[in-house]
Write a structure and sequence with these properties.
By secondary structure, the chain is an all-alpha fold. The protein contains 17 helices and two strands. The longest helix is centred in the middle third of the chain and has 27 residues.
């Protein structure tokens, strides 16, 4: 059936429809679960193992368990993904991760969270996301590209075994899946202990499922295609730039998984917000200064392109396939975010809001 669809409509169209379906699932689940790395970091910085941390951990371990389990069973193979096969940058992962983490706290959301919030009526998230996308495009192909390339060349790692944590640690995919299942069980336990609603915890697991489905869909199309089809999964900075540039530079969007993913996430989150009564318009105000959000957007846009992915693209999709640079990037995102949140907390303590 898949071969027929590819023969009839082409790889690009099939990938775009797959991205749309995965995006709807991810957007609805992310909105309902309140999946947000920034909120998890804020809890940890405040000395809490709270509900938002448990939501992020459920999504993360679900993604790793499902992807590595599928690889162990031979359902698909991810060795040819860019995050494993191509030359990577550890300097980019470190510097970009720190920048992205700091920007995420200033903008009160990572790239995926901003897209989800935009669909629920949050105009702050919409403006911030657009600026993030423009900076990311500039870092990819524009005036900021030379700086990104120079930083990325400081510490390179070859593709293949050197970039695969399974090869580095000697762990098999089945072993990684088993450890992830144990982590998932502990994460569900933390969610129960912190009073997380069952539907929210399950929705967080669906976020991880969407990541696994993204890898499965692109691998399946690549297997039946006579063309070279890059395999990938849920990520936002790159697809958002492709979508935006397609909208402003062409009468037709370039067909592909990422171009379907972005509107799918927006639609899924928006419908979920309407169904649950959480849709409401929010604007910038005295307590939400635009300049802080725009600074955060700039740091995230450049940082994501330097690190090779956003909090979801590196943290979940890259982490699920055990890409070394992805794990380094998300670790540095946590470090940068925690340091920034600590500074914000100190500033708030020194200058409390009157009334």
């Amino acid at each position: 059936m898949l071969e027929t669809l590819v023969d009839t409509y082409g790889e690009g169209a099939v990938l775009m429809m797959a991205g749309l379906a995965v995006g709807v699932l991810f957007g609805a689940a992310a909105q309902h679960s309140r999946f947000c790395l920034r909120a998890a970091v804020a809890e940890v910085t405040g000395g809490q193992l709270g509900p938002r941390l448990s939501i992020w951990l459920v999504a993360f371990f679900a993604a790793v368990a499902l992807v590595q389990g599928a690889v162990a069973l031979g359902w698909f193979e991810v060795a040819q993904s860019r995050q494993l096969a191509a030359t990577g940058s550890l300097s980019g992962a470190v510097i970009g991760g720190l920048m992205f983490g700091a920007g995420m706290m200033l903008a009160r959301g990572c790239a995926s969270r901003l897209l989800v919030l935009s669909a629920t009526g949050n105009l702050r998230a919409l403006v911030t996301g657009l600026v993030l996308t423009l900076v990311a495009q500039s870092a990819l192909r524009g005036v900021l590209a030379p700086a990104r390339e120079a930083l990325g060349r400081l510490w390179l790692v070859p593709g293949g075994a050197a970039r695969n944590l399974l090869a580095v640690t000697g762990l098999e995919a089945g072993g990684a899946a088993t450890l992830a299942v144990a982590g998932l069980a502990l994460s569900f336990g933390l969610a129960w202990w912190r009073g997380v609603r069952v539907s929210h915890a399950l929705a967080a697991a669906v976020v991880g499922l969407a990541v696994a489905l993204g890898w499965a869909a692109t691998c399946a199309v690549a297997r039946v295609s006579f063309e070279v089809v890059p395999i990938s999964s849920v990520t936002f900075t790159g697809p958002a730039t492709d979508t935006l540039m397609g909208l402003v530079n062409s009468t037709r969007l370039p067909a592909g998984f990422g171009v379907g993913l972005v509107p799918g996430v927006f639609a899924g989150a928006g419908v979920m917000a309407l169904l649950t009564g959480t849709f409401r318009v929010e604007r910038f105000g005295a307590e939400t200064p635009m300049e802080r959000y725009l600074l955060g957007a700039g740091l995230m846009g450049f940082g994501a392109m330097l690190a090779g992915g956003c909090a979801v693209g590196a943290g979940l999709s890259g982490g699920a396939i055990m890409a070394l640079t992805a794990w380094v990037a998300v670790f540095c995102m946590w470090l940068g975010a925690m340091a920034t949140q600590a500074l914000l907390n100190r500033g708030a303590a020194r200058h409390p809001v009157a009334g």
